[in-house]
Every structure is written in structure tokens, then in C-alpha cells.
Fold this sequence. Notes:
This protein has 237 residues and is α+β, with helices and mostly antiparallel strands. The protein is built from eight helices and ten strands.
Amino acid sequence: MSEKRIAQYKLIENDLLQKINLGYYKKDDLIPTELELSSTYKVSRVTVRKATDNLVAQGLLRRVAGVGTFVCHPSVTLIPSTIQGFSAAMEKLGIAVRTEVPTFTLQKAPANIASILKIETGEPIYFIERIRYAGEDIFQFETTYMSSRLYPDISIQILQASKYRYFETIKGLKVIRSTHAVTPLHPSKKIADLFGISLDTPILRLASTTYLDNGQIMDYTEVTLNSPKYQLTYEKR
């Protein structure tokens, strides 16, 4: 089967997005005109307009009639050089956070999840879905698996706040490390609709296992990042 070809407008959109995120185009910069971009990318102005329309819709560009198109802001960058939760990371940037918890149920742990959590297959676990907002924007969608035997007092109220803060301040358990596996992918329709992006927008999924200082595993979480707005960067030290 041949590879699906990415539309020209999407290639241009992704290239402009990368230049914004890398600081090539900074906040309040005037980007090249449609005519200049069509010449650079060797496409029609209609194709350029479709690419910039998507970035305008995502709040990364804004048009001023008779002047041009400006960069609103780059996406927020997470640099996980220290162990901290989403809430703490956003607070350091001065960004207000809120969390919706559409799913909070008990289920039996399948073998693969039980192996990660170091519990018995079939043992009851929480299955949690959280939508994390920074300001008015959705930055990430989380799916979490956690032992209900080890942590029977987890509630929606706790999940609407910070898990890390709850474990450290209420339970007296310190998060000592977190392992990450990052996968690039295209969003499902559910995620595309939630983030307001197209199905061919490249995004990242972060699979994370978090460990506590008592030797227990806090949880296993898969975080899908709204990559046009929220970038992940690693520092080698």
C-alpha cells in the first residue's frame, strides 16, 4: 500500500508552525505576505491561505486588514528536566489551569496494565480521563490507570486539581521519578474534534509511569498533547 500523501497546505502549515515554535517568527512578528509565501513554497495563494487559515483558527496567527498577518504567540514548551505535574508547570509560566474529568470508573486491570502497575491481573483499578486546560485552551488529554487498592481515597475533586500535589502534601509521598516514551502520531477523530485540529495534524503522545519514594507506582498515564499549542522539549544534562 502506498503512503498517504500529505496535502501541500498541511506541509506549509506545519513548516510555519515549526518556525513559530523555534522562534524564527516571534510574537508580534509580521510573517511574509501570501504572495511571498506562495513564491517561497511554489504553490498558489489559495493553498497558502488554507494553511494560514488553520493557524489563525488555532490562535497562533492573527490577520489585520490592510496590514498583514502577525504571530500571536508561540506554543507553550514543556521541558521535563525536573519532576513536576502539569499544574505546577503552568503555574511557573503564570498560566491558569483547570481540569475536566469526563471519565472516572473502576475496572479490572488487563494483563498489560497490571504488569506496568506491578499489581495482579484482574485487580480493580481506576480508569480516568482528564482534559487539561491552560487559560481557555485545551493543552492535553490524559488517560490514567491507577490502583484503587493502593489509593482508595482518590476522588474527582482530587483529579480536578493536581495528583502530584495530593500525593506529596496529603499522602506524604514524594514523586521520585517518571519514565517517558514519546510517540508521534496523527490524532483520532475524537482527539481532533477535542483539540480543534485536522486529522492530519502531527501530534505527540507521552506514555508515562510515575514512581513514589515508598517504592510504589503512582500511576500509568498516556498524555496526548495538543502539539500546535503545547510542545515537548527534552534537555540533555
